[in-house]
Amino acid sequence: TAKTSWPEVVGWPAAQAVTQVGTDRPDVAIEVLPSGTSVAPGFNGERVRVFFDGTGSVAATPSVG
Question: Given 3.30.10.10, 3.40.50.720, 1.20.1530.20, 1.10.540.10, which CATH number is that of 7-64?
Fold first, then answer.
């Protein structure tokens, strides 16, 4: 079963989290965005968004969508 969320990467440097997500799910596009960024609504099963804080650490659990 394909992985759909990565709670373990919260607090990691964003670049390291992107590497982990890409290793687990090479079939998805990964978007890296500052926390609070406005994004278009809607689910996309081929996308994972990684939101990072002011220190460059992952601020929320990345998930498919």
Answer: 3.30.10.10
pLDDT for 5-64, tens place per residue?
999 999 999 999 999 999 999 999 999 999 999 998 999 999 999 999 999 999 999 999
Q: Give the C-alpha separation, 12 to 8, whole Å.
A: 8
Q: What is the pTM of this model?
A: 0.93
